[in-house]
Amino acid sequence: MFNPALVNRFQQIETPFYYYDLELLKATLKACADASFRHRFLVHYAMKANFNPRVLDTVQSFGFGADCVSGNEVLAAINHGFKKEKVVFAGVGKSDKEINLALDQDIFCFNAESVQELDVINELASAKNKTANIAIRINPNVDAHTHHFITTGLEENKFGINIWELPAVAEKLRQCQNLNFLGIHFHVGSQINDLSVFQNLCLKVNEIQLWFQEQGFTVKVLNVGGGLGIDYFLPDKNSIVDFESYFQVFKDHLQISPSQEVHFELGRALVAQCASLISRVLYVKNGLKKNFLVLDAGMTELIRPMLYQAYHQIENLSRQQSAISSQQSAMNHEPLTPQTSNLISYDVVGPICESTDCFRTDVALPESERGDLIAIRSAGAYGEVMASGYNLRDRVQAVYSEG
Ligand code: LLP
Question: What is the pTM of this model?
Answer without folding.
Answer: 0.93
